[in-house]
Write a structure and sequence with these properties.
This protein is of the alpha+beta class. The chain has a domain of about 190 residues. It contains 11 helices and 11 strands.
Amino acid sequence: MNRPRFIILCLALFATAAATNAESNLPVIELHATKEIGSEQYVPCTAKMVSPPSLKEGNSDLLRGKIRVRGASSQGYDKKSFALKLDESTRWLGLQKDRDWVLNAAFVDCSMMRHKLSYDLFQSLSTDPAKRFAASSRFVEVNLNDRYHGVYLLMERVERSLLGLRRFDKNDTGHACIYKAIDHGANFLQQGHGAYEQHEPEPEELEYWSPLDELNQFAGQAPDRQFFDAKSGIASRVDVDNAIDFHLLLLLTSNMDGTDKNFILARDAPSTTVPQPRFFFVPWDYDATFGRNWEGSVVAPNEWLSNHLFDRLLSNATYKQKYAARWKALRKQQFSVENVARLIDDNAKTLGAAATRNERRWKQIDPRDPNQLTFTEDLKQMKKWVAARTKWLDAELGRRTSR
């Protein structure tokens, strides 16, 4: 190696070390694993939350637990996402007290905020009588076995207590249920439950597929007269207002995987007061959003996204009217270009210098390559894309709901 190139390399390594050893502006999770972390099984670990002086909450004692790599295609990236299971429940950074946590790496998401931005937007649609559930999250930095491992999104796991569902009782005749769509067959046309995982009840306690099977059969096969019946139709089986908000979030963010995969369906247990509880949607896995696909490629702002259930609903004149009115209302508030840009800026301010540290740890960026975005450039492109996306959706939803 020639001397000038060697000096440049040394300076680059020094700059990276200086950045990663700097005091964090974010909470730091100190992880120590006793074995190499893989995806097949959990390995023992310890975890400790250390917050900067500017944050009053967040510090924790040394906690024991176990950890594994999580995700599907993302397992191939250098920076892994992790599932962390603590021995005891803890409340980190004001999030729900729990044992199970997700540490999302957001490796292909240069902004590191697409998940958080999408979930926060959906939560912002909540009202007291009409909750919109999504995982809450916080930005953290991770040190793994005393080495800086970058910025992560600490996320709640979507489970029974987060959704306010009744606890499983084997003596009940009906149960609360949570199903996660894991395959593109989750389009409400394919019968059965082959495209889903059961998360509630715990499959070891009871396999409980009948509520989902009945919903898929009804959505896929019921004639229109039965499907739209005021008393026994789809509105008695699915929270239609929730479905509207969920579909509009998919469209706003252009979640390319979210219509027939990577969403959660949940329903409470039947009771004397609510003998037929309705299913509702919970968003999950929103890295393929805001102008980027799951592998980081560019997505145009003029893609329409739907599935068989949403198509059937949009064939009804009354539903169209409600759908169009909800979009117009959200465009003035939560889904306005100005509000989304403000949320992006707020997240960027929270990340602060940690974004640069993460970039230096993981990204070998060539600014001459348009596909290799810096954090700052990705934010600019996201804002520009949101403006183009909402403009196109205003026209497209107007066209589709006026026919």
